[in-house]
């Protein structure tokens, strides 16, 4: 009879939904949204760190503020606008594209274009017109070069 | 008492530096070689004295002599031995002394190494090196001495910044400084060329190995910095476009342009002014890099020393050096007008010019981005942030352009490329690039940057492998050996060229690593209790327990996470949340497991009183390619430096 109890106990052991005890935690859609927004905002008390990466208390508060606003139904744009109105352009991880900021957005590509154009024109100018016929006889070898060729031919 | 010996040595070194400059000038005026010998003695003794200075500081750290202010500020009685030595350059004063010490060892080496072959250059070399040295030693002696005493002596030191207590940080500053300082040798030779009027190719040939050595050190230093940020800062990335990182990246960019551009002058005797300009800019940016980091002008996560007054001095010093260099260049530029002759727009010369353009625009972009916040603050009074999103958007196209040029450059002939030559060298790579794009598309990769990156990597990579294949076969047939031996023979027959191609391969691997780990990084943050599990990518992480761990100078809460994939246990990761005892400052220690060339990266940024832990998992695919690519780049440079000397060198 004992065997039956043992078997019963064993069955319970095996069939008990053990995995459900280990709670599976996961990010919610909200968590992901908070992260996306937090990555675009700067932690104002840290140095060039966004409030997602920063562990500063202010960054924790700001993340909480983002979460709160998202639960209230604010859109990411509204949240950005809120932080912008409180902290100014400084809060964004990249300079917003207006006013003087256009300078650093455009400068790299402008430099490439202007530089490239300038280089192209210069090189065109340097190219000798006569060189369109590449079959010029090579300049005669000087003594040193001759000797070297001889040397290297005979002692490879 | 010991530390005063160090202080005294450095003061004497300062005097000897003056003697070095004076004797060089005397040598040039009197044309008496004895004065040059005096200069050589001055340079050598400076090295010995700075060695003594460094040694006494190291000794003070090892003896934990907290009566020395610098030691008290940067170490602690519980600081482990290993980091006690690193603490010597953990702060402003010590790093300056390290800079000066490396400079003096390089100057001494250069003076003895080139003494016999470069007699006319010697006085100029000694004068320029001593002038740079004077600038640094004056700063150390008068404004920021690491030898100052602290009265009364504290019972214990304030401790080294916990973030700096990391193996990579031990080597990072010396490597970086060796890079910066290494460029001072070609810079001094360039200055010597300008002052002496010997404006040929001599100075470039003499300093060729110095240049690549400096480049190797700088590259290693930058990579170590990235490695440190990755392990220690705990956000799973290795490059944050932080002002301090940018400060080291700018001289690297211009230095790399210089490294390539000198080849044109060596082969074609053109662009003399241009190369002088590039080395002046490179060394200036090295000085500016030191200045930016050490003056506190740009505050950033890496800057641990801030003092604007010293900054003003460094600014004047740098302006003097740069001003003198450019002045000399402008005065001599008429003599430097080289006969520029080009046969075709489509030639290696033009590719090098465009390579230079891209590198300089890249450097200008980083420069502008780094200084723009300062500019806005001065001009408009407002504040603005230039962070990673800006650089990623702007820098990527420039970098891709450079990688494409890297594929073309080595395979386009000097002077003029014919249509058949282009077809022969670039048809297969072009197809290979397109095939790579198609393969990526088929495997579900649609990111524009990944595709563009795939194209250039496929293009440039296949060009190199095609070349390696061809030469191996050629040598194998000629010498009747197998392909591998043929490759080795071909490689050693033209080691300079092929070792730089190895470096190029390293760059491509690095780029694949960067693209994959940037675009395809997966991240997840969860709050969990012991027994909970979370999944990231196809890994499951179960928090088994959280327990206390005690280190020599810190205590930590350590989480033990069991990582499983398909119900199979892969490893256990143990991230920590540490608190360093002396400073009570917290750090997050990441736990990393390498798998499939990538990393599972786990941190535990917070544990609340009721046992809820915040866990942050990051999957960085192919990140080992970043470090591996860096290693191959370094290997290529070493093969280049230690190539057998050929007759014409």
SSE pattern of chain B: HHHHHHHHHHHHHHHHHHEEEEEEEEEEH
Low-confidence stretches of chain B: 300-305
Distance between the termini of chain A: 96 Å
The N- and C-terminal alpha carbons of chain B lie at a distance of: 50 Å
Derived from helix and strand composition plus strand pairing, the structural class of chain A reads: mainly alpha
**Share of helical residues of chain B:** 55-70%
Instruction: Please state roughly what percent of the residues of chain A sit in beta strands, choosing from under 5%, 5-15%, 15-25%, 25-35%, 35-45% or over 45%.
Output: under 5%
> How many individual domains of chain B?
5
Low-confidence stretches of chain A: none
Sheet having the most strands of chain B? 6 strands, antiparallel
CATH architecture of the domain at 12-91 in chain A: Orthogonal Bundle
Mean pLDDT across the residues of chain B is: 89
Which word captures the global form of chain B? Answer: globular
Nearest-integer average pLDDT of chain A: 79
Number of strands of chain B: 10
Named CATH topology of the domain at 12-91 in chain A = Helicase, Ruva Protein, domain 3
Biggest sheet of chain A: strands, sense, closure? none
What's the CATH class label of the domain at 12-91 in chain A? Mainly Alpha
* Number of extended strands of chain A: 0
Helix content of chain A: 55-70%
Radius of gyration of chain B: 27 Å
Summary?
Chain A has 156 residues and is an all-alpha fold. Chain A has helices spanning 2-15, 29-38, 57-71, 76-87, 102-126, 143-154.
């Amino acid at each position: 009879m004992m065997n039956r109890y043992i078997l019963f106990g064993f069955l319970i052991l095996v069939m008990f939904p053990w995995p459900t005890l280990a709670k599976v935690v996961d990010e919610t859609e909200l968590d992901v949204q908070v992260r996306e927004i937090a990555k675009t905002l700067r932690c104002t008390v840290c140095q060039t760190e966004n409030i997602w990466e920063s562990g500063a208390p202010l960054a924790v508060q700001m993340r909480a503020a983002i979460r709160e606003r998202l639960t209230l139904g604010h859109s990411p744009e509204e949240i950005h606008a809120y932080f912008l109105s409180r902290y100014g352009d400084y809060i964004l991880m990249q300079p917003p594209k207006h006013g003087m900021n256009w300078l650093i957005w455009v400068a790299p590509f402008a430099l490439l274009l202007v530089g490239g154009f300038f280089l192209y024109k210069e090189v065109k100018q340097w190219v000798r017109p006569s060189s369109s016929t590449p079959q010029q006889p090579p300049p005669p070898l000087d003594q040193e070069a001759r000797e070297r060729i001889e040397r290297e031919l005979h002692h490879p | 008492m010991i530390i005063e010996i160090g202080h005294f040595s450095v003061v004497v070194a300062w005097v000897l530096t003056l003697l070095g400059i004076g004797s060089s000038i005397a040598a040039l005026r009197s044309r008496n070689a004895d004065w040059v010998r005096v200069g050589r003695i001055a340079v050598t003794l400076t090295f010995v004295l700075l060695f003594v200075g460094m040694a006494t500081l190291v000794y003070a750290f090892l003896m934990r002599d907290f009566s020395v202010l610098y030691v008290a500020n940067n170490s602690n009685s519980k600081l482990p031995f290993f980091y006690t030595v690193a603490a010597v350059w953990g702060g402003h004063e010590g790093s300056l002394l390290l800079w000066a010490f490396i400079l003096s060892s390089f100057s001494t080496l250069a003076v003895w190494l080139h003494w016999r072959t470069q007699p006319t250059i010697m006085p100029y070399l000694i004068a320029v090196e001593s002038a740079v040295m004077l600038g640094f030693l004056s700063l150390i002696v008068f404004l920021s001495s690491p030898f100052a005493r602290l009265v009364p002596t504290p019972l214990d030191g304030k401790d080294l910044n916990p973030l700096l207590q990391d193996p990579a940080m031990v080597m990072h500053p010396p490597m970086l400084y060796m890079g910066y300082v290494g460029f001072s040798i070609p810079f001094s030779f360039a200055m010597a060329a300008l002052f002496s009027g010997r404006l040929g190719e001599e100075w470039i040939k003499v300093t060729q190995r110095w240049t690549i050595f400096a480049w190797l050190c700088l590259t290693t230093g930058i990579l170590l910095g990235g490695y440190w940020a990755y392990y220690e800062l705990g956000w799973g990335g290795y490059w944050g476009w932080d002002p301090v990182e940018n400060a080291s990246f700018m001289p690297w960019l211009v230095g790399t342009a210089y490294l390539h551009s000198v080849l044109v002058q060596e082969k074609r005797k053109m662009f003399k002014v241009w190369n002088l300009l590039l080395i002046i800019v490179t060394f200036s940016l090295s000085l500016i890099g030191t200045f930016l980091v050490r003056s506190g002008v740009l505050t950033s996560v890496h800057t641990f020393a801030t003092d604007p007054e010293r900054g003003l001095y460094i600014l004047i010093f740098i302006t003097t050096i740069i001003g003198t260099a450019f002045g000399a260049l402008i005065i001599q530029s008429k003599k430097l007008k080289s006969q520029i002759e080009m046969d075709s727009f489509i030639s290696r010369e033009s590719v090098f010019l465009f390579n230079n353009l891209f590198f300089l625009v890249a450097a200008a972009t980083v420069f502008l981005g780094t200084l723009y916040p300062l500019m806005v603050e001065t001009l408009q009074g407002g504040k603005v942030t230039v962070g990673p999103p800006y650089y990623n958007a702007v820098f990527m196209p420039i970098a891709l352009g450079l990688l494409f040029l890297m594929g073309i450059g080595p395979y386009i002939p000097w002077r003029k490329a014919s249509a058949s030559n282009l077809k022969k060298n670039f048809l297969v790579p072009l197809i290979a690039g397109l095939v790579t794009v198609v393969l990526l598309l088929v495997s579900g990769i649609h990111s524009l940057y990944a595709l563009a990156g795939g194209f250039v990597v496929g293009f440039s990579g296949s060009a190199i492998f095609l070349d390696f294949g061809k030469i191996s076969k050629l040598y194998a047939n000629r010498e009747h050996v197998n392909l591998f031996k043929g490759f080795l023979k071909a490689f050693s027959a033209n080691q300079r060229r092929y070792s730089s191609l190895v470096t190029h391969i390293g760059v491509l691997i690095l780029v694949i690593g960067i693209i994959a780990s940037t675009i395809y990084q997966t991240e997840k943050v969860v709050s969990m209790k012991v027994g909970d599990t979370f999944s990231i990518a196809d890994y499951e992480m179960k928090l088994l327990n959280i327990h206390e761990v005690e280190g020599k100078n810190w205590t930590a809460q350590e989480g033990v996470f069991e990582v499983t994939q398909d119900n199979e246990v892969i490893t256990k990761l143990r991230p920590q949340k540490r608190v360093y005892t002396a400073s009570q400052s917290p750090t997050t220690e990441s736990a990393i497991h390498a798998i499939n060339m990538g990393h599972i990266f786990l941190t535990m940024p917070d544990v609340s009183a009721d046992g809820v832990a915040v866990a942050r998992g990051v999957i960085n695919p192919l990140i080992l390619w970043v470090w591996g690519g860096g290693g191959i780049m370094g290997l290529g440079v070493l093969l280049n430096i230690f190539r057998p000397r050929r007759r014409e060198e």
